[in-house]
Amino acid sequence: MLRTIPNFRDVADVVPGLRRGRLFRSDFVLDPHEDDAKLVIACGLRWVVDLRSPSERQDNPNRFFERTGTPLVHMDVASRGDPEVLARALRSGDGAAGAHALMLEVYEQFPAGALAVVDALSGLIAQGDLPIMIHCAAGKDRTGFVVAALLRAIGIEHELVEADYLASLGRVHERTFAHSREIMSEMLDTPIDEAALAGISGVHSDFLCAAIRSAERRYGSFQAYLQTAGIDRERAQAMRMNLLEG
């Protein structure tokens, strides 16, 4: 785990059969320690895909990758959700229970919000524009779902997809806690308790399953969701050739 980029990793670290050095995921790289920066630069990234919203990018521009000359692609995952619905979910239980309900609501929005992103990213991978790094703010939620969809598209079994997703547990930068504390306190109009903060800042298999079930309900199956995102048999095969060993 990198000290200043705790959620930066090669997806192949967790998913056997993936070619190393092809697909990376991360939290936001703001001001990395010199040693961490060297490790990231050594990956030779062809693209960095930023899933954050325009307002997030305005508040915290991706200056590190701009300085290193790494091409940036902005692919906002439009998954805001109704603020009133989210606040109601957060108030539905005490502490961790309310946070859990909130995150389920957030993840329900991911499939529709990420549809165009999955389409564009799968196209880059199919073309062999690699290595690629995908990130959002914490690198666990939006990034978690998008990476899960890409892994499912190349035939990775659910257990391994979930293992990669859950590998973000405990890899949270302090700025993520601070940001979550601020947002949730505004939503509740009162300071958020630490149990709720931990729940919002973590990952849980229920969250990923909520997103997958949402896709299945809306599109008929997760495979149909991927097809709607432009991943037909030909593209999926090209993705497998560029990401899988052998």
From TrEMBL:
InterPro entries according to UniProt: Prot-tyrosine_phosphatase-like, Tyr/Ser_Pase_IphP-type, Tyr_Pase_AS, Tyr_Pase_dom
SUPFAM superfamilies referenced in this protein's UniProt entry, alphabetically: (Phosphotyrosine protein) phosphatases II
A Pfam family annotated for this UniProt entry: Y_phosphatase3
The name this protein goes by in its record: Tyrosine specific protein phosphatases domain-containing protein
Family, as annotated: Belongs to the protein-tyrosine phosphatase family.
Species: Novosphingobium malaysiense
Residue ranges of every copy of the Tyrosine specific protein phosphatases domain listed in the record: 112-151
PANTHER family named in the record: TYROSINE SPECIFIC PROTEIN PHOSPHATASES DOMAIN-CONTAINING PROTEIN, TYROSINE-PROTEIN PHOSPHATASE
Gene3D superfamilies noted in UniProt: Protein tyrosine phosphatase superfamily (3.90.190.10)
UniProt GO molecular function: phosphoprotein phosphatase activity
